[in-house]
Amino acid sequence: MEQIKEAISNLIPQTDKMGAIQFVRQHRLESFVSDRFDGDFTEELQIDLYNIKKLNEDKLAFLKRVHSRQGIKPLVIKGFTAFYLTGNTALLRKSKDVDVFAQDPSEFVRILLEDGFNEIKSPNPHEYSMLTKDSIEIDLHRHFPIASYPRDLGQRELNKELTTNEPLQFVNYLDYDSIIHHTVELPDCLIPTVTMSALIACINIFNDYVTGFAKAPSMKLIEVIEVIELIDHQNFNRGVFAQLVNLYGAQDAVSFTNYITQELFGMELVYMDGLRTYSKYPQIFFWQFNTWFIPERIQDITVTDKLDPIFRVMDSSKAKVSCHARNVYSNKSIKYPLLGIEKNNGGESPEIEMEVLMKDILSVTVHVNTDSDIDDDVIHIQIGKFRKTLTRNKFAYFSRDVVKYDRTDRGYAVEFKISQEDIPDLMSNHYDHIILFVEHHLERHVSSNFYFIDIVYQC
Asked: Which option is the CATH number for 2-286: 3.40.50.1860, 3.30.460.40, 3.90.1150.30, 3.30.2310.20?
């Protein structure tokens, strides 16, 4: 643990304590570093720790209520499980949602609706439903997918833009039936054993990383620390772990987690036969075109929330945002261009415009000029702390005070309304980065478009 603490201390920003506090919160390290700060920041962290403990108590009260009234012990994964398995208070972390499997999902939903929960149908195929009440958010899973690199990745030259013949694979999944045989009982719920929890943690870390291009950081450091603690625990069974890895095809997940613990903490997690190792671990860049992104340094993608490492290797547009007039940039304009990478399987990308204006908030409106509705399109944006992905199925999740969708006479428009608190660098330094992704579907044609924008605030 001391080796990990020293490594974390070196990763925490040293410039100012508020930056350090934000880093700690972002990586869910409040309990892990609670004795590191003094003065006013100790008080601030103590408030965080109180809220974390209160949220944990709320979750336990919910589970107790379901168990006492219905005789049901839900199967809970991730979240607080590492804390209860190891007894290590440093692993009690902020986690608003409760990831749950149920033997009878429809009956479980009925019980929660009767208890006053509100249901939102999840747009994610691996989730059965999402339910909320007060401080509790329940993610009810159908299954837990296991990602793997394509088989021909190892034969490819690892350059900036890597294309494989095969797509990112989801080779298998864990579900209630596969996890239930590897659980331990708490008073009001079931949780996976130390060994199964370690496997789930490796899978989760790799899934988040490999699909996390343009999502900085692409993982939380507390999750890596949890894996280390679980594998180092006396109840961890290396033989069973190896069997589970091979049974469910999770070799790449374990290989990557080994790699990240070596790079960040100088530690190898677990050695086992059959793990493919890579000189670099790419992230999926264009899903539709099997194109990958190779980060220069793994720390740049997994630790920092800055987009600078991506912009160092990508052609970017220069854009200005004003409080006086709307500025418009287009992928079809020579004078005011949107620069990036466009991929198409036929035809060409539609005209895509980005309109920016600063008032009390930053307004970024994406216009897609097309004959169709949003249908199967995907719009993703990241600037500062603001990161949103919009599809037709996700309309219900967003308030129109944050994301507004409208049909226009030339297609459709999506306006993202970004608070000043979410863009501290743009407000204080008058400079930041935007990553914009637009995937457009029209009949059998698909265009995937990444745009990289250096934005300057002038008022």
From this structure: 3.30.460.40
